[in-house]
């Protein structure tokens, strides 16, 4: 297939198929996929979002829409800088991957240490990959995010958000690179991990002149603390912080320095030196021992952990080993558990290690959070002077108690909050572990602003989300997003318009770029200078704000040109669909929603977002360590663009991961070859007969076209492809068998129609192959611009489909009997139920649907004593019948006529003589067998 792709790509370009221009006579469809960072070539996993966007765009074009699908390149931010730095440092693994996997020439690699060269080099490589993949992109609109024209658009965007109060100067926790001293987000980290910042409560346990600040996510359990855990094998630092002399792990001392000023290191102590000392619980006043435990992670929190064995399976398990005489103190009661819930789980499940204990801990924390209540006797544990303040805690739910205790501890000076990376370790692209910094005097996008958040939610509720279950992920992200640092001091990008020492970061300048595509080509066409694209220009083009004559005067741009840009934007906007990976929901895609809601009027809000899962290669995640990364361009050379496209887009549900495998490629390739051979055989199909085989194949084919059209509209590409390729393949083979059993040729006209329509259906998935087949069929037009198929619903024949189903069931039943038949079978006698038995089954189905049960059914049919047993059998049969068969039963037909019509096919499939006749009472006496409706009795001679 590789040989045909360039030919058709050239033809599509020649005919400007993918150049989208306004056409008021057609409905428009505007779709984008995430523009890539050109800091490396694309691998096969990157291709999924682009192919699914392209498949849907191609479908919409064939469905009569005027389609726009553009592409640009994301140069801004730190990913390109960090990768270039790694090349400059001589990173052996990276250079090995560039040479051995991506096949980058030795002469090029040293040049990649210059960020702009790297970005430009990989941009061209990615563009080639996209073209080779057959993406239907309007390349006239291409830009990069460091183009000065785009920078003016970013400046306008930020000025609008600033003017509305959505960008603020504030102090706030952020993910932070401790080496480059910049905030970091998802695209600044290795593996594109978004640093998830969470709060710990520090509770100050005093031990002599030291404060042991225990970091906890469950401050409400402070009443049940029986010990303090430290790691005996680690070094601890004595520091001055928050006005206190504290003992924390070495890593915690570093982290504290980013969250408060003037942290001083005083001393260093080995954890083992602390064992045997005691600490005082500040809330209860009780003394508790300091115990050593190597499970304490010095990298998390402070390296000081309070032990609450009643409610922490980890603690219960180790306390019983280390100090079994400690009295366990319960704080939370939970229905279905004893006073000590952690003991129930540990004793019952017998955990074998940290992983098992972690699962049990998560289970108990979740159950107590959702259903736990604070015990009535908990106040007996508190210091007398705190009882009045803590009185409301009795009977509270765990979330309520957590808030009350947190507020009490902080207001009483018994502790404070600290911030932690909850999904640690997260590494900056420079290789250093990300920490949390309380960033002062920094510019933030205030996603916590309730007015803005409300608009974002309104936008989300108005959008299509595919798959629909991803909507909850968006709701969650919009809910928890708060202030986000929107500027850096490092990286390529646009300076903040009001504070030029800051550069707008890459996840902040890439939120509404879809609007820029609508006019990017016109800016180039009319040679509009960046200096001319002032705020007033963008206000008019994007929002229709301002006086056109005045704006033309201010900018020096002809007012007809400005108006033309405004009309182009108005035609294409709002964006109809945005495609991306599901991992971008918490950041890129949620910012996309926020910023559109914050800048544009409702009628210009995006209409849909589609997110897809990741890609596995032969069942494994692609990774550098496994060396199983497959470059996209290499995969196209190995398998062909059309087969790569089919696997990426159509072998898993949108939200699920695709498993790219050789066997899957072969399976699709074999099916395509079958249809190609069928097209080549059409001239030999000479019959014009329209018997049962034609009625059946016409029915299932038109049903398929109806269903596939629905699936395509829903972006359910997996089911669409499965029905059109694999199911239809099987149905056509069945059709040829049916025709052969009649001793005749297939219907040539019908087969030509089916193959022609099939080519149209497959065109969005595999356009080069479809184009080649379309022209082999003698067509002169381009299949990619042909109208989508129109099923003829009048040809959907439920009786014909039921007849075939009947045939299949009968073949299965006879073969099941023959598989255990002893001797050589000569003949199968098929005894078909009579009309009276059929009426009885219909009544049984209606009785079940009316909810009348066996009694109601018997009352309706009033069977004689001799018929009673059979009637019971019919009713039980109806109870187990599948919905498809029930639907058939309700159709008006005569079972014996159907059985006789299919008899030649039955005989051909079984290879023995077949006699079909109606059942009568003598048959029961003779064969001791009795048929049920649609389930004949079978006698083998």
Structural features, described:
The chain is α/β, with parallel strands linked by helices. Helices cover 45% and strands 16% of the residues. It contains 34 helices and 30 strands. The strands form 9 sheets. The chain has a 5-stranded parallel beta sheet with strand order 2-1-23-24-18, with helices on both faces. Strands 4-3-17-19 form a 4-stranded antiparallel beta sheet. Strand 11 (278-280) and strand 12 (287-292) form a beta hairpin. Helix 3 (79-88) packs across helix 5, helix 15 (513-525) packs antiparallel against helix 18 (559-572) and helix 16 (535-543) packs across helix 18. The radius of gyration is 36 Å and the shape is globular. The model has no long low-confidence stretch (mean pLDDT 92).
Number of helices: 34
Estimate what percentage of residues fall within beta strands.
Answer: 15-25%
Oligomer: single chain
List segments where confidence is low: pLDDT < 50 over at least 5 consecutive residues. Answer: none
Shape: globular
What is the alpha-carbon Rg in Å? 36 Å
Could you give the count of β-strands? 30
Structural class: alpha/beta
Mean pLDDT over the full residue set? 92
Spatial order of the strands in the main sheet? Answer: 2-1-23-24-18
